[in-house]
Amino acid sequence: MSDALSVNATMGVLGAGVCLPDEALASALQLDDCALDIAILPPMVRRRTSLATRIAISAASRACAEGGGDLQMPAIFVSAAGEMQVTDRLCQAIAREALPLSPTQFHNSVHNSASAYWSMATGSMASMQAMSALQDCFAMGLLEAACQLQTQAGRLLLVVYDEPMPADLLPEFDWQACAFALLLGAPSKGLPNVSGPFVVDAGNAGDGPAGLSSRTPAMAGLPLLQALRNPVPGRHRLPVTTGNDGWTIELELP
């Protein structure tokens, strides 16, 4: 990507939300208002959802509330590994021949579970997209959001989320449950504005199996969140990946 593309694909930040259920980690990162909040889901539905879905919906709800409460908009949900805890439980059940498999666990195992629950909870008929891009989930989510906002007017919700990986699958990966959401729209002088992602200094792709980063991919959004919550007027460059690919954005704060 070039710096020219990032300038042409500027987006206004209308709202931001985060979910980081680990209170000790949230305190260490000086983050507040980041506990689980799935009040938008009907009580019977809450019991069926996975941790990945709950953190994604918590962050999405906060971003929309900060941006004015309108929930009828397209959304992009991005996760490096999706519902890996649910998938791991299903695989273990198959290995034990514990059949038949749970229908609830089965339908929760797909990568678009969070976006589907969000669509049902909000009653939104707008497009819902599920993506994955390993450690570059946040950067690629921003790129997709920029492309969509270039071709359609209005608002768009971007949610990036990940849960801890099963210990037997990646035992050295200390992923934490984390979700970060942005409500994006047209750029404005009165709003924080972010560019599309571009590469400043590309390196090796990740530091673990298949290019995954040992750091939670969704946490790539935290530098932007902290800059939004502690604004310093002017233009700033921020990393938007937990890998070594050099993905960066420009943030302009009024």
How would you concisely characterize the structure shown here?
33% of the residues lie in helices and 19% in strands. It is an alpha+beta fold.
CATH topology term of one domain: Peroxisomal Thiolase, Chain A, domain 1
The gyration radius over C-alpha positions equals: 18 Å
> Helical residue percent?
25-40%
The sequence of SSEs as H and E is HEHHHEHHHEHEEEEHEE
Give average pLDDT, whole number. 88
Count of distinct strands: 9
CATH A-level architecture of one domain: 3-Layer(aba) Sandwich
Strand content: 15-25%
What is the H level of CATH, i.e. the homologous superfamily of one domain?
Thiolase/Chalcone synthase
Write the layout of secondary structure elements.
Elements: H1 3-8, E1 11-19, H2 23-28, H3 43-46, H4 51-66, E2 75-78, H5 84-95, H6 103-108, H7 113-122, E3 128-131, H8 137-151, E4 156-162, E5 178-185, E6 193-194, E7 198-199, H9 222-229, E8 234-239, E9 247-253
Parallel strand pairs: 2-3, 2-4
Antiparallel strand pairs: 1-5, 1-6, 4-5, 6-9, 7-9, 8-9
Helix pairs in contact: 4-7
